[in-house]
C-alpha cells in the first residue's frame, strides 16, 4: 500500500521544489531518502540502496560517520557560524593549514568559498585582478579545452564546453573565452603542439589557462594523459600566463593521487577544491594560490581580492572538513582507492559485451561506461535500483564514483547495477 506521508511529500515536491537540471514541474518522480548510513541510502518503497555516486562525488567516507558526526556536534556546542570579515577562528585557520600542507608545493594562500562553482569564480577573478594590478587589463580572457565543466555560475559557465555542455543557451551573453580542442586520452605530440600554439597565439590577451587535470568530470567523464598538464605548465611559463587547475572533482584521492596535479608532478598557480572537502556533510570549497598571485593582487590600485561570501569560512563546515581530511590521511586511502579501482575494472569488464556500449574506462575510484546513444535515464535508473544500487546516468554515460569505504561485495553489486543500467538504458 502507498504510504500517505510519502505520497504527500512527493506531491509537494512536484508542486514546489525545483531539482537540479530539471524542468518545473519535474517529469520524473524522485526517490525519497529517509536516512543514510555507511554506503547505503534508505529509500522509501525500495529499502536500502548502495550509493554508487558518493552524493555527486562528495561522501568519500560514506554517511553518518561517527568521526564526522562528532566533529559537527563539537563545533555546534561552540558556534555554528560567525562572520569572517574582521574575525577569524580556529577551524578555518586549521583547515587552511591542512590544505596548504597537503596540496602541491607552492600553494600557500587559501580563500574559503561556498561551493565549487564559487571557488572557480574566485579563481578566475584572482587571475583577472592579478593582471589588472600589474597594469595589463588587456589580459582578460581564459583558455581552456573543449569537453570541460567548471560549474553553473557565470564565469565558470564561460569555460565549460560551449557546444556539448549545458550552457549553450548563454552564447553571446557569457564572456567569450578561447577553446583548444578536447584532449585525446593518450599523449599525442601533434595535440601537445596544438596546445603550445594556442597559448602562444593568444598570450597577449590571456589571463589564465584553466583545466580539469587528468579527468574531465561532468563534461563527459573523459581521461587524458598527465603529460598535457606539463605542456600547459611550460607554455604558460614561457608566455606569462597563469595556470589554474579545477580539482573540485579530482581532489582528495579520487584519481589515485591526493590531487590529480601529482600525476604530472607540478604545481598550478591557482587550484580549486570542493566536493569531498567536508566528506559530503556541508557545502564548502576553497581556492588556493601561490604567493606570486597573492602579492600581485596586493600591489594593485585595489589591493584586496574583492570577494567575500556571507558564509565564508563557516566554522561548522571548516571543523567537519578538518575531521574529514584527518580521517582520509589517517588511513591507507591509496590502498582503498586501488582496491576499488581493481574491483571496478573487473566488474565493469562485462559491460564491454553489452550492445550499444562504446567504451569502458576506469581510473582510481571512477568507473565509466559510455554508450553510443543518449541514456534513457528513467529506464537505466530502474534497472540499477532493481539491483539495489543508486546511480545517476547522464547524457551517454552510466558511471560510478563510490565512497572509499565501499566493501568488495557492495562494489560488485555496483558494477552489476552499472552493467544492468547500460543494458536497459
UniProtKB/TrEMBL annotation:
Reactions performed catalytically: (8S)-8-amino-7-oxononanoate + S-adenosyl-L-methionine = S-adenosyl-4-methylsulfanyl-2-oxobutanoate + (7R,8S)-7,8-diammoniononanoate
Entry-linked SUPFAM superfamilies: PLP-dependent transferases
Cofactor dependence: pyridoxal 5'-phosphate
Pfam families from the UniProt entry: Aminotran_3
Pathway(s) it belongs to: Cofactor biosynthesis; biotin biosynthesis; 7,8-diaminononanoate from 8-amino-7-oxononanoate (SAM route): step 1/1
CDD domains reported for this sequence: OAT_like
Class of this enzyme: transferase
GO cellular component: cytoplasm
Transmembrane segments: none
Subcellular location: Cytoplasm
Functional summary from the UniProt entry: Catalyzes the transfer of the alpha-amino group from S-adenosyl-L-methionine (SAM) to 7-keto-8-aminopelargonic acid (KAPA) to form 7,8-diaminopelargonic acid (DAPA). It is the only aminotransferase known to utilize SAM as an amino donor.
Protein's UniProt name: Adenosylmethionine-8-amino-7-oxononanoate aminotransferase
Natural source organism: Streptomyces tabacisoli
High-level lineage: Bacteria, Bacillati, Actinomycetota, Actinomycetes, Kitasatosporales
Gene: bioA
Amino acid at each position: 500500500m502507498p504510504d500517505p506521508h510519502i505520497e504527500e511529500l512527493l506531491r509537494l515536491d512536484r508542486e514546489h521544489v525545483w531539482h537540479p537540471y530539471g524542468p518545473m514541474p519535474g517529469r520524473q518522480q524522485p526517490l525519497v531518502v529517509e536516512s543514510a548510513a555507511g554506503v547505503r541510502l534508505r529509500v522509501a518503497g525500495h529499502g536500502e540502496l548502495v550509493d554508487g555516486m558518493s552524493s555527486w562525488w562528495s561522501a568519500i567516507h560514506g554517511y553518518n560517520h561517527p568521526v564526522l558526526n562528532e566533529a559537527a556536534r563539537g563545533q555546534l556546542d561552540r558556534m555554528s557560524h560567525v562572520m569572517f570579515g574582521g574575525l577569524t577562528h580556529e577551524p578555518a585557520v586549521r583547515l587552511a593549514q591542512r590544505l596548504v600542507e597537503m596540496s602541491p608545493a607552492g600553494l600557500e594562500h587559501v580563500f574559503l568559498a561556498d561551493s565549487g562553482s564559487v571557488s572557480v569564480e574566485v579563481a578566475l577573478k584572482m587571475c583577472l585582478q592579478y593582471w589588472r594590478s600589474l597594469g595589463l587589463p588587456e589580459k582578460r580572457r581564459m583558455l581552456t579545452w573543449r569537453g570541460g565543466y567548471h560549474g553553473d555560475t557565470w564565469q565558470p559557465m564561460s569555460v565549460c564546453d560551449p557546444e556539448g555542455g549545458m550552457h549553450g543557451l548563454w552564447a553571446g551573453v557569457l564572456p567569450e573565452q578561447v577553446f583548444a580542442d578536447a584532449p585525446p586520452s593518450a599523449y599525442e605530440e601533434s595535440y601537445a603542439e596544438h596546445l603550445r600554439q594556442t597559448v602562444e597565439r593568444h598570450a597577449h590577451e590571456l589571463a589564465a589557462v584553466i583545466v580539469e587535470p587528468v579527468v574531465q568530470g561532468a563534461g563527459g567523464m573523459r581521461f587524458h594523459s598527465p603529460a598535457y598538464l606539463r605542456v600547459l605548465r611550460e607554455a604558460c611559463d614561457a608566455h606569462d600566463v597563469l595556470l589554474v587547475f579545477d580539482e573540485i572533482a579530482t581532489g582528495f584521492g579520487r584519481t589515485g593521487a591526493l590531487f590529480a596535479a601529482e600525476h604530472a608532478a607540478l604545481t598550478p598557480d591557482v587550484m580549486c577544491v570542493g566536493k569531498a572537502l567536508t566528506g559530503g556533510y556541508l557545502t564548502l570549497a576553497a581556492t588556493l594560490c601561490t604567493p606570486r598571485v597573492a602579492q600581485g593582487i596586493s600591489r594593485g590600485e585595489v589591493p584586496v581580492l574583492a570577494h567575500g561570501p556571507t558564509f565564508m569560512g563557516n566554522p561548522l563546515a571548516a571543523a567537519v572538513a578538518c575531521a574529514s581530511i584527518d580521517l582520509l590521511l589517517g588511513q591507507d586511502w591509496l590502498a582503498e582507492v586501488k582496491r576499488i579501482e581493481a574491483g571496478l575494472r573487473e566488474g565493469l569488464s562485462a559491460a564491454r559485451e553489452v550492445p550499444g556500449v562504446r567504451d569502458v574506462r576506469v581510473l582510481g575510484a571512477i568507473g565509466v561506461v559510455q554508450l553510443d546513444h543518449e541514456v534513457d535515464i528513467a529506464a537505466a535508473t530502474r534497472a540499477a535500483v532493481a539491483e539495489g544500487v543508486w546511480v545517476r546516468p547522464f547524457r551517454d554515460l552510466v558511471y560510478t564514483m563510490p565512497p572509499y569505504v565501499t566493501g568488495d561485495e557492495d562494489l560488485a553489486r555496483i558494477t552489476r547495477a552499472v552493467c544492468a543500467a547500460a543494458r536497459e538504458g
